[in-house]
Write a structure and sequence with these properties.
single chain; mainly alpha; 5 helices
Length: about 120
């Protein structure tokens, strides 16, 4: 069962025009992840906070991406964050990392792998 409501998420996303059912879908995803990763590591109040901020991160990473720069006549828009930056790509995700003293949310991104091809000299 989710720990937060759409109204609580709207407190940190006040400009969101998403409907309650849409926000609830994101809450469900955040709740499932929090339950799988953090339930045995954090107190219930912290789990609630992480779930709320993770929901906001998920929303702002997908359907309501945050703009860093917008235009008008030339119609250009630049969004915050880049794919692959995981929770660091939004201020909401950064808050999730701050609220998780276990470090388990930060570890979800895994390690970056680099492959280098070496020419065969045969």
């Amino acid at each position: 069962m989710a720990r937060v409501t759409p109204a609580e998420v709207r407190l940190i996303l006040p400009d969101s025009e998403l409907t309650d059912p849409t926000i609830t879908a994101f809450i469900t995803s955040a709740n499932n992840l929090v339950n799988a990763v953090l339930t045995d590591y954090l107190t219930e109040p912290l789990l609630t906070e992480v779930e709320k901020w993770l929901t906001a991160h998920m929303i702002s990473s997908t359907v309501e991406r945050m703009a860093t720069r917008e235009g008008a006549g030339g119609a250009e828009i630049y969004y915050t964050g880049k794919y692959g930056q995981n929770l660091t790509s939004t201020p909401y995700g950064q808050m999730v990392l701050s609220l998780d003293p276990s470090g388990r949310m930060a570890a979800l991104g895994g390690k970056t792998v680099t492959m280098i091809a070496i020419k065969n000299f045969d």
